[in-house]
Amino acid sequence: MTTRLDLKLETLAWRLEAEPHIVIQKELCLACEGRPCTFVCPAGLYVWEGDQIVHNCEGCLECGSCRAVCPQEAIQWRYPLGGYGVRYRWG
Amino acid sequence: VSEHVHDCIVVGAGPAGSAAALHMARDGLDVVFLERGSRPGEKNVMSGVLITNVLDTLVPDFRDRAPLQRRISGGYELYVLGKDEVLRLGLRDYRPAAYPPPAYTVFRAQFDAWFAQEAVAAGAELFTETLVEDLLWEDGRVAGVRTRRGDLRAAVVIGADGVNSTVAEKSMLVAPPSPARLSLIVREVLDLPAERIEERFALRPGEGLLTLFYGAVLGAGGNQGVYFTELYTNLDSLSLTAEVPLDQLQACGVPTYDVLAARERHPFIERLLQGTKLREYQAHLIPYGGVADLDSLYGNGVLLAGDAGRFTTKEGVGSWPAMASGVAAACAVKHACERGDFSRTTLAVYRTFLEEAGLAATQREARRAWASGQDPLEVLAHHPDRLFHAARRYHGDWMPGWERYAHSQWGEAYHSLVKPLAPWYVRWPLGLATWFDTRRWRKQQARQGGETAR
């Protein structure tokens, strides 16, 4: 199913920003139990690898779900700067 | 950096922001509205249909000019999804004025751009690619916004910047929404030629259809969530969504994209989607459960409208409440400009305008629906096995081989009404009684077997 999501994300266009718009305080993730970000993110950008969370800002759909569900409040989230980020052509 | 003080800065050029900007520009106010995308609508996802009651009052000839897809004529189709079966309910209403406020499918990338342009034509000034990062404060009141392109000053700032509102957060008017008050939607736009859409869904050119699916999803931990799916017709494409409140998603643990993929493969939906090709995948967060407190939507020099204020109906429709709240905010700003006072006390007139627009009642209903848990269909969707059992019983009346599932009169009532709906402490004793009653009845049937063979 992951490959399907990859294919789906390929339909989208982005203008990428140099600095990441999502910053995670990874030390807080160690205490996290459910790790909801790993299944809540609709682009599947949060992956738990071994002992830490791996996150990729590229591919963000800017929904804000990760910040809302993070039980540790470890996710510092802002919108990408004006003109950057995802560009929906058929929103 | 300009020292010019505008009458109002509207943050966000979606339905709420553009409605507010349009209304104020027409009233002759000096209005600037800001959009973080390279054009309005670029960051937005339409998850539903646009109900045009408010748009009709703002732009009466919108039907001729707005980029609309299909008119959703009265009615809808509604399904409860089982694993390999569906239960159907629905209404098609062909009366001429079936739906007083007609609804349309639209693409926000097109519609929002057009709507913002209406405001520009009326005299509002639009800045795109402009992200508001902070508010400017002066003597304890909001005096403008901070952007990378410089500071902008205004007597009032209207926050219409969506569910993750920077204005709401920085003005500290409302607390960040809890997951229970947010709903995540993923959506696919699927190409399908117009003629095939019309044949498949029994539509005439320009007519559209809204189809709703309720389906329970069982998570790995045994928790069940009801994911709501909508399928609607655009001009030459279909939109398929999967929507779930964040708290349910958290409890259930099944990603929305997996549910969407499973819905695509559901035997019934698969048939509806035959021959389609994916055009775009999208995700969007929406508020859920209505505005908690209307008095939290205004402060000194600041107002919140649309998703930033968390306006929705009890069905989760956000676009027309957004427009209506934008208009109410515009009226409040005009009132404040006439008085020359932009304090919270004066801007409290926003509440009056919201009440006049009927939004206070809408939000009350939305809050009540949210607090009561869920709508009846969602309750049914939680128990698909029982529901389908009940549905199959009627099927059994004319299908040979189903007699062995037949029940006494009391058993019929129990299995179709009590069992799907009643809690366990009602179900257990009545279920036991039903079992005995049915056994008695079957024996009686067997005795009469010869004469009354079905």
What would you say this structure looks like, in words?
The complex is a heterodimer of chains A (91) and B (454). Chain A is an alpha+beta fold and 91 residues long. Helices cover 23% and strands 22% of the residues of chain A. In chain A, the strands form three sheets. A two-stranded antiparallel sheet of chain A has the order 1-6. In chain A, strands 2-5 form a two-stranded antiparallel ribbon. In chain A, strand 3 (46-49) and strand 4 form a beta hairpin. Chain B is α/β, with parallel strands linked by helices. Helices cover 39% and strands 25% of the residues of chain B. In chain B, strands 1, 2, 8, 9, 10, 11, 18 and 19 form an eight-stranded mixed beta sheet that branches. Classes of the chains: A alpha+beta (91), B alpha/beta (454). Chain A binds chain B through residues 1, 4-5, 7-9, 11-12, 15, 34, 36, 39-44, 61-65, 67-69, 77-83, 85-91, and chain B through 36-38, 41-46, 107-109, 128-131, 133, 147-149, 163-164, 166, 176-179, 182, 184, 186, 188-189, 237, 246, 249-250, 253-258, 261, 278-285.
Task: Please write out the topology.
The complex is a heterodimer of chains A (91) and B (454).
Chain A: H1 2-9, E1 13-15, E2 22-24, H2 26-29, H3 37-40, E3 46-49, E4 52-55, H4 65-69, E5 75-77, E6 85-87
Antiparallel strand pairs in A: 1-6, 2-5, 3-4
Chain B: E1 5-11, H1 15-26, E2 31-34, E3 50-51, H2 53-58, H3 62-65, E4 71-72, E5 75-81, E6 86-92, E7 103-104, H4 108-121, E8 125-127, E9 132-138, E10 141-147, E11 150-159, H5 166-171, E12 182-191, H6 194-201, E13 207-208, E14 210-218, E15 224-233, E16 237-245, H7 246-252, H8 256-265, H9 267-272, E17 277-287, E18 298-299, E19 302-304, H10 319-339, H11 344-347, H12 349-356, H13 359-371, H14 376-381, H15 384-396, H16 409-421, H17 424-448
Parallel strand pairs in B: 1-2, 1-11, 2-8, 4-13, 5-14, 11-19
Antiparallel strand pairs in B: 3-7, 4-7, 5-6, 9-10, 10-11, 12-16, 12-17, 14-15, 15-16, 18-19
Helix pairs in contact in B: 1-4, 1-10, 10-12, 15-16, 16-17
